[in-house]
Amino acid sequence: MNWLRRPASPTQITHGQRLWLYALAALVLAFLVVPTLIVIPMSFSGSQYLEFPPREWSLRWYRSYFASPAWMQATATSFQAGALTTLLATPLGTMAAYGLFVSRSRWAHVIHVLMITPIIVPVILVAIAVFYVYVKVKLVNSLAGLVLAHSMLALPLVMMMVTSALKSFDMNQEMVARSLGASRTQAFFSVTLPQIRFAVIGSALLSFLTSFDEVVLSMFVSGGSNSTLTRNMFLALRDQIDPTIAAISTLMIVVTTTLLVLSQCFGRAGGDD
Amino acid sequence: MGPEVVALAPHAAGLRRDEQVERWALLGLSAPALVLVLVTMIAPVAWLFGLSFLADDGSWSLEHYRRMVEQPSYARTFGVTFKVSLMTTALCILAGYPLAYVMSQLPRRVATLCMLGVLLPFWTSLLVRTYAWLVLLQRQGLINEWGMALSWWDEPLALVHNLTGTLIGMVHIMLPFLVLPVLGAMRAIDADYLKAAANLGASPSRAFWSVFFPLSFPGLLAGTLIVFILCLGFYVTPAVLGGGKVIMVSNHIANDIELFFNWGAASALGAVLLVLTLAFLLLAHRLLRLDKVLGGGHGL
How far apart are CA B91 and CA B168, in angstroms? Predict the structure, then answer.
């Protein structure tokens, strides 16, 4: 056990003297990771109750999920809303980030602050305000209304990611392209965009996740045949513990992890440039 | 004014005009996004804000705010909100600071692995995590089952549908928001300072408290403020894990709408929540740079 007596930091404290610290850190890390992961094996339980480890394995909760028209419809809505939010928020956010970054107008800062308000204002407030307006303009329970609201939530994230990519991009390259005769639009699409593409793709994935995982706005503005997955899950959670949700949770973890791995792959490739 | 300046003047004016035009065109690129935010967020919230000053008969009044002062249920809601937010923040500091400290001194590869652990829950749906805690903490849940099997306690503990469950769920969700900025600050600390302290005869704990801790403090402050501000607006976790017993401001607002259709009360409460949030953000902005605070949560 030589390691225990070795100094652990520049202050010469030994590893042995601060084993308690390692134990505490390991506990906290377990607290962060285990609860999320434990749902996965539990979702394959064959009994009426969720058990760990399951006494018998089965796919019954997955069957009950795929056999339910309500859950299927909600899943379809969530994917649609996510995809449309991505298609709306990514280009709008990228355009805004670029415009505000390049324009040296003194209004740029004001507009920037206005556009990040969706992540500052408590979401419940946004939800009831949007609900109030949607009731008046008859957008409640419509896919269009949901997509507009989710895009508004995703915009600040797209803007922050793209702006930070632009900060590390050398704008002189665009200048060179333009001095060689390219228009600003041509220069953007052939010089700038290819170099910030990883931030743009990353922000597209983040937009999808923002919409896919969003609960509170969906609670208020989606419903009927346009209920989202999260809305149905939330309502089910408030009432009883339905093991079907364990199966859905597992599938959601798979979706999120896939997107995360994808964005990491793009990020890795971007880092090598 | 020399003759060459006069000769240049028309040209310079043209250039200036071109620059102006381009500046507005570029600004115009942000117009669609700005319109979206204005229409779906700023206008509705402003409308709601105005609504909070309208009495039921349509005249201007402070009725809804007066009721907030007079009815004890509102004071209770604010009390619970502050209590839960402060306790969550304190628990996040107690759990998150040591974790960040250990992570900052681990070899690169192990630290990356730990980082994945910190980010995994951060990227998992809030509902999935809340559900996981519901399953683990319920009466016949895993924690009660194992605790009783190991005879740590005899009767199932009430771990969920109360304050305990809410706190556990909220700490789980907020912890990454504390760990990331603290870790960032710790990684920036020059190890030579600690060597110097040790060299000058400081004991390890003295070196930690008088050198390392003060240097990591800005990161801790940023994390603490962002956790506290985010806690103020929590809705989902108290609604599910609190089982209707933990009513924070957001839950109170939702109840006012869903159960009582009382838009006046909900909007006034919303206005107070917004003002509180903005006040704490302003404080954060004064103490630190705001973009650092906001950027803290998205450090992937």
Answer: 9
User: Which chain A residues are Cβ-neighbours of B250 within 8 angstroms?
Assistant: 122, 124
Nearest CB to B239 within list A114, A125, A238? A238
Q: What is the pLDDT of residues B33-88, one digit of tens each?
A: 999 999 999 999 999 999 899 887 778 888 889 888 888 989 999 999 999 999 99
Residue A26 CB partners (closer than 8 Å, separation 6+) = none
* Chain A stretch 107-126, residues whose beta carbon is closer than 8 A to a beta carbon of chain B: 107-108, 111, 114-126
* Tens digits of residue pLDDT in A26-56: 999 999 999 888 888 888 988 777 777 778 8
* DSSP characters over B2-60: -HHHHHHHHHHHHHHHHHHHHHHHHHHTTHHHHHHHIIIIIHHHHHHHHHTTB-TTSSB
Rounded Cα–Cα distance for residues A92 and B32 (Å): 7
pLDDT digits (tens, 9 = 90+) for A84-141: 999 999 999 999 999 999 887 888 888 988 998 998 899 999 999 999 999 999 999 9
Q: Please compute the mean of the pLDDT values over residues A70-83 and round it to a whole number.
A: 95
Q: What is the DSSP string of B227-263?
A: HHHHHHT--HHHHHHSTTS---HHHHHHHHHHTT--H
* Inter-chain touch A151–B99, beta carbons under 8 Å: no
pTM, to two decimals: 0.87
For chain A, list the domains and their CATH numbers: 76-272 (1.10.3720.10)
Place of tokens 């930091």: A9
pLDDT of residue B87: 97
Output the six-digit token pair for A213.
């995982």
Domains, chain B, with CATH or none: 74-298 (1.10.3720.10)
